[in-house]
Recover the amino acids of this structure.
């Protein structure tokens, strides 16, 4: 793997353009259970991750409120008196839901920031700066990282899940490579040339489809790509992303987790995420109560 890195063109080391690499994630998903007289609500949330080049990190979270999923759900909600909050118990847990934003929280993390992980492997900021800046070299490097992860997972599965074989992972190698390349578009503080290489490598990965120009949930325009499907006997996972091809950053991801024939839909697995990633000098704080801000 080290040899691969030496044969590919590395990016020029980039100095941090701010104190923190920050990723805001605005999430929209279906609430897990019907509420009130039986209508379905959609939830909005925001989470924020900050990471410093030396490995310190913070995480913040805030619920942004719920709203009826469909016109029919809205009518049922209004007939119910347009309540603004619900509380119920399921599987021993107390669940609360509100149409208004919650207080939220922010805290320092003790674990290594995900920004300094390359797939499942911890890396330094300096290592990220030296990733190949050409699509072919970067794809070889990421494929090697994914194969190393598969080898490790298959070895662990011999004791934890004896029925699972290495082939089960290799059957979805293209998807895993595509997902790892996608992470470089927002999760890791890599130079823009590396993000550009990641996008080009992603576009040419087997099973990835170009869906043309599209708007994301925040109204921004980018290029929409469909990642390879993950089909098993229990589910079919479909993922689509929207990329800003100017900054080469990920703007949105759409996840559709459909059950196999005869299976039961699990609410909350389908979701829409909008991302705002980049350097900032703003200190970690509870996120704003407004979606998209």
């Amino acid at each position: 793997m080290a040899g691969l890195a030496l044969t590919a063109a590395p990016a020029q080391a980039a100095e941090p353009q701010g104190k923190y690499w920050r990723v805001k994630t605005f999430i929209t998903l279906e609430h897990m259970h019907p509420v009130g007289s039986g209508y379905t609500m959609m939830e909005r949330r925001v989470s924020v991750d900050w990471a410093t080049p030396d490995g310190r990190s913070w995480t913040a979270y805030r619920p942004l409120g719920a709203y009826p999923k469909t016109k029919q759900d809205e009518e049922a909600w209004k007939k119910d008196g347009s309540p603004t909050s619900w509380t119920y118990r399921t599987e021993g847990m107390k669940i609360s839901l509100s149409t208004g934003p919650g207080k939220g929280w922010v805290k320092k993390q003790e674990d290594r920031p995900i920004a300094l992980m390359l797939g499942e492997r911890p890396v330094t900021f300096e290592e990220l700066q030296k990733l190949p800046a050409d699509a072919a070299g970067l794809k070889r490097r990421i494929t090697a990282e994914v194969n190393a992860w598969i080898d490790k997972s298959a070895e662990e599965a011999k004791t934890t899940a004896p029925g699972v074989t290495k082939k089960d992972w290799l059957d979805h190698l293209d998807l895993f490579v595509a997902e790892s390349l996608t992470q470089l578009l927002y999760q890791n503080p890599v130079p823009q040339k590396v993000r550009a290489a990641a996008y080009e490598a992603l576009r040419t990965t087997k099973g990835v489809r170009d869906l043309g120009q599209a708007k994301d949930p925040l109204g921004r325009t980018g290029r929409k790509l469909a990642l390879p499907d993950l089909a098993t006997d229990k589910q079919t996972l479909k993922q689509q992303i929207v990329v800003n091809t100017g900054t080469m950053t990920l703007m949105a991801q759409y996840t559709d987790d459909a059950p196999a024939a005869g299976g039961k839909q699990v609410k909350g697995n389908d979701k829409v995420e909008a991302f705002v990633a980049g350097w900032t000098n703003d200190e970690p704080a509870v996120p704003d109560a407004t979606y998209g801000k």
Notes: Residues 1-9 have pLDDT under 50 and may be disordered. Residues 2-280 form one domain. The longest strand covers residues 57-68. The helical segments are 2-7, 71-79, 125-129, 135-160, 166-170, 173-183, 192-203.
